[in-house]
Design goal:
The complex is a heterodimer of chains A (242) and B (563). Chain A is mainly β. In chain A, 10% of the residues lie in helices and 41% in strands. In chain A, the strands form six sheets. Chain A has a four-stranded antiparallel sheet with strand order 13-2-15-16, with no helix packed on it. A three-stranded mixed sheet of chain A has the order 14-1-17, covered by helices on one side. A three-stranded mixed sheet of chain A has the order 3-7-10, with no helix packed on it. The longest helix of chain A has 23 residues. The two termini of chain A are 33 Å apart. By secondary structure, chain B is α+β, with helices and mostly antiparallel strands. In chain B, strands 13, 14, 15, 16, 17, 18, 19 and 20 form an eight-stranded mixed sheet that branches. The relative contact order of chain B is 0.07. The chains are: A mainly beta (242), B alpha+beta (563).
Chain lengths: 242, 563
């Protein structure tokens, strides 16, 4: 998922003066090739992070958002322009929000298409983003841009059980654990990072950073940890079927 | 003869009743008293138990009603609070963050939609108070009961408990404000006060009291339907160590007895339902008083009645006893005077008849013999004993009788016999036979008489005196002859199965008869034998007359004259 466009100071191909008569197009092509080669070579230097999360009973934990923020001089690639980022979609399907947990970078726009035959409303009172999409069908009245970092809890005001979580992160480096409790962060430039882990049932007292990790060149770092969960206040879905 | 002549009836060795009357009386009274007491005890026990049971059942029902009543109140509030927790407009007001707006909204909700006596709002992060309807100006202080929120948080269910706020008791319910996950905690509650207690009393008709346990483990009444005087007493009673378990118990408060049920209501909190036992028993008091009065009256009547009945039985019985007593003494003339027509009356009549019979019979028997027969029974075994025989008859009686009419003869004889038997009997002699004008009497049988010989002689001398000093049947003078001998005789009842005669047999008897006849030869009046003289001592002056031969015997008998 992540866009790992990390580079470091690498070797540049030194080019002498071009032979007479090749002109600017040749120069541009050469530059492009060079850069491409640079990119490839940089990817080959990157390290990976393999994260595995379980709960206290040892069961794999899904929906854990694992993110790393570079610190101390670790060079990062500039974030992709907004227009180039793919649209994030959180749909209402079968009277539920899908997906349950979404991690996005600050500034990302999210679309909330209603794929049900009935009307839904989408609201949030979270400090990071307060908004309300009044009852609608099919296409949402607007896209919602999440411009502040933090946790945004979404609900539907006519269906008490519908809930979704949006983790808005500064850093572009994040992944969410799958059903096996695993997530992979690839192509990280070697260096030191601050590791953060978030989950809907994790303690609400801020998402404190978990600690620092070192990414080494061409190595896959395996991280495993256990997350303690608190009980959930969630109304039951009505009716049970359908 | 027994010295104590009054009859005695013994019940047991330890209980002695000296008369039939008291025995009957005691029996009647005892039986009656026993029945009355048993009845009384049964009635009081039954009424006590049934009242007790009924009140106990009532209390148990009241307890269930109480729990339901409170439970429904709690549920109602909880439901309303839950509705509130999903109210979108309220969430918006909360999210907006303006406290004054929120305060007004909460006040409105509390009053109009929830119907609670108190409502609080606390934030989900720090549990700090945002809104408190009891203290509208207060905010940003820690919520007083964080444990309630923690319980709700951990269980995923609303939590409910009793707490004190400003010295008053509230039942509090905590639910989250879901937006859509808990963003704040809403607390609603109702007052536990006298009004609540009154509402309960109207439903259950029992007195309701809410008590809290203080720091010193003493109970105090927080709310109650009882008047204040009883409240203090109740608190004291509770403090005196009833254990707080949920069973019914008796309570005495200001001298009134209650049956009470304890319902634990929370930590250091309890509810006491009570019903007055005394009031419930009041209608029975009249019954008891009536029973007691009835018992006393009936006891009195039975004393009188028992006495009367006893009398109709014991008075005649005493008369009968007296009659028997007289017979024992030898008085056969005494008749019992009982007028009753019942069994006792018939018994008295029979007794009288028997007495008359006895009186008649006894003239045909020696008195001594009659006494002995009555005392010892019919068959006195024949005994051989030394005795003195006195034989007497009238000189020239046969010739005399020829000149008299039969009636005069009988009169003469009767007078003569009366005169002669008196001395004999006086000196203890028993007449065994009347033979024409002769009398055969014996001394020392059937009763022993150590002085029998002398007594016989005394009797003889008196007979001589009597006969010579008076006239019989008008103007006839008689001359008596007496023969006395002492010897071994056989005395006893002789005869057939149906008819017996008390007689004496033996040589001694024959000798006495011969001596009597000998008077004619010697011209004497009283002749005694040597054997008799040997036994009479010095008080008499016997004169030796001669010796006679006894037919068939070798020895002769020396004969003496006394008159």
């Amino acid at each position: 998922m992540g866009l790992a466009g990390l580079t470091r100071k690498g070797k540049l191909f030194a080019l002498g003066a071009p032979p007479n008569g090749w002109g600017r197009p040749a120069m541009a092509g050469l530059l492009g090739l060079t850069l491409a080669l640079q990119g490839i070579s940089f990817d080959l230097m990157a390290g990976d992070l393999d994260v595995s999360v379980t709960d206290r009973e040892g069961r794999p934990l899904q929906h854990v958002v694992v993110s790393v923020a570079p610190i101390r001089g670790t060079k990062t690639a500039s974030p992709k322009p907004l227009g180039k980022r793919p649209m994030v979609i959180i749909a209402q399907r079968n009277k539920e929000f899908v997906p349950y947990v979404t991690a996005i970078q600050t500034g990302t726009a999210v679309s909330f298409p209603n794929q049900d035959a009935i009307l839904h409303n989408v609201y949030s009172f979270s400090r990071a983003k307060k908004f309300e999409l009044p009852l609608y069908k099919d296409r949402p009245p607007a896209l919602v841009v999440f411009d502040q970092p933090g946790v945004v809890v979404l609900g539907c005001n006519i269906h008490d059980w519908m809930v979704a979580y949006v983790y808005v992160l500064e850093t572009p480096y994040f992944a969410t654990t799958d059903a096996n409790g695993s997530a992979r962060l690839e192509g990280l430039a070697p260096g030191e990072y601050e590791l953060q882990v978030q989950h809907p049932r994790k303690s609400k007292r801020g998402s404190a950073p978990l600690g620092r990790i070192l990414v080494k060149r061409k190595t896959v770092e395996h991280i495993e940890f256990v997350l303690a969960l608190k009980p959930e206040w969630r109304p039951t879905r009505v009716p049970a079927s359908n | 003869m027994a010295s104590d002549t009054r009859p005695r009836f013994e019940l047991t060795s330890s209980l002695r009743f000296h008369s039939l009357q008291s025995r009957i009386l005691f029996f009647f009274l005892g039986l009656f008293a026993l029945v009355q007491i048993i009845t009384f005890l049964a009635v009081t026990t039954a009424s006590w138990r049934s009242t007790n049971q009924q009140i106990e059942n009532d209390l148990l029902v009241s307890g269930r009603v109480f729990n339901r009543f409170i439970g429904e109140r709690v549920e109602q509030l909880m439901l309303n609070a839950k509705l509130l927790s999903g109210d979108f407009a309220f969430k918006q007001a909360f999210a907006h963050g303006d406290r004054e707006t929120l305060l007004s909204a909460v006040s409105n909700l509390r009053e109009h939609r929830i119907g609670a006596d108190v409502m609080l709002l606390a934030d989900a992060d720090e549990y700090s108070v945002i809104i408190d309807t009891l203290h509208p100006a207060v905010h940003d202080v820690p919520f007083a009961f964080p444990e309630l929120i923690e319980t709700a948080e951990d269980s995923g269910e609303p939590s409910s408990s009793v707490r004190t706020i400003d010295g008053r008791l509230y039942r509090l319910i905590v639910v989250p404000l879901l937006a859509p996950e808990p963003v704040a905690w809403i607390t609603v509650g109702f007052l536990v006060n006298d009004e609540l207690a009154d509402g309960l009393k109207r439903l259950t008709l029992t007195d309701v009291s809410f008590l809290t346990k203080g720091v010193a483990d003493d109970w105090s009444v927080v709310a109650s339907t009882l008047p204040s005087s009883l409240r203090r007493a109740l608190a004291r009673e509770a403090s005196n160590g009833h254990d707080g378990s949920d069973r019914s118990f008796t309570l005495t408060v200001n001298d009134e007895r209650f049956l009470a049920l304890n319902i634990p209501f929370g930590e250091r909190l309890t509810v006491v339902l009570q019903r007055s036992l005394d009031k419930a028993l009041a209608p029975f008091q009249r019954l008891y008083r009536f029973l007691v009065a009835l018992t006393v009256l009936a006891l009195a009547l039975s004393v009188v009645g028992g006495a009367l009945i006893a009398r109709t039985v014991t008075r005649p019985v005493r008369a009968l006893v007296e009659g028997a007593h007289r017979i024992e003494k030898g008085d056969y003339q005494h008749q019992i005077n009982i007028a009753q027509k019942d069994e006792i009356g018939r018994l008295a009549d029979a007794f009288n008849q028997m007495t008359r019979g006895l009186a008649a019979f006894q003239r045909y028997l020696p008195v001594e013999l009659v006494r002995t027969l009555i005392k010892k029974g019919i068959e006195s075994k024949p005994e051989a004993r030394l005795a003195t025989i006195l034989f007497t008859d009238i000189e020239g009686f046969t010739n005399l009788v020829e000149t008299l009419t039969p009636e005069r003869t009988v009169t003469l004889l009767n007078e003569y016999f009366s005169a002669v038997t008196r001395p004999i009997e006086k000196y203890g002699g028993v007449i065994t036979q009347f033979q024409g004008d002769a009398i055969l009497s014996v001394f020392n049988v059937p009763s022993e008489d150590p002085d029998h010989a002398a007594n016989a002689v005394r009797a003889a001398l008196e007979i001589y005196d009597v006969v010579t000093t008076r006239k019989f049947a008008g103007d006839i003078s008689l001359r008596s002859r007496v023969g006395i001998n002492t010897g071994e005789v056989v005395a006893g009842s002789v005869g057939s199965e149906n008819r017996v005669n008390y007689t004496v047999h033996g040589d001694a008897v024959n000798i006495a008869a011969r001596l009597e006849v000998l008077n004619k030869e010697y011209g004497t009046r009283v002749l005694v034998s040597q054997a008799t003289v040997d036994l009479i001592g010095d008080g008499f002056a016997p004169e030796r007359i001669g010796e006679i031969e006894i037919r068939g015997k070798k020895e002769t008998v020396t004969v003496y004259q006394l008159a």
